[in-house]
Design goal:
Distance between the termini: 25 Å
Largest sheet: 2 strands, antiparallel
Helix content: 25-40%
Number of helices: 2
Strand content: 5-15%
Shape: globular
Structural class: mainly alpha
Strand order of the largest sheet: 1-2
Number of strands: 2
Low-confidence stretches: none
Radius of gyration: 13 Å
Length: 70
C-alpha cells in the first residue's frame, strides 16, 4: 500500500485491553467523510490490540456506517 493511501487516527489500546489513549472520533469522522467524498469503496482498518478490547474498532465501524451515504 503506498504511504499516500494510508491514514492514521489517534487512539491506543494497551496489550491488556486498557484504553491508553481514547479514539479521536472527530478526526475519524473527518477522515471517513474525506474518503467518502473521494468515492473510496473499501478500506482496511488495523488497530493494535483490538483483540484485547474491540471498543475503538467498533466505534470506527459505527462512525463509518453512520457517515457513508450511498
Amino acid at each position: 500500500m503506498p504511504r499516500r493511501l494510508t491514514f492514521e487516527v489517534r487512539e491506543r489500546i494497551g496489550a491488556r485491553g486498557e484504553i491508553v489513549e481514547p479514539l479521536d472520533e472527530a478526526r475519524t469522522r473527518e477522515l471517513v467523510r474525506s474518503l467518502s467524498a473521494r468515492s473510496v469503496e473499501a478500506v482496511g482498518v488495523c488497530l493494535l490490540w483490538s483483540i484485547a478490547n474491540p471498543v475503538h474498532e467498533e466505534a470506527v465501524g459505527r462512525i463509518s456506517t453512520s457517515l457513508v451515504i450511498r
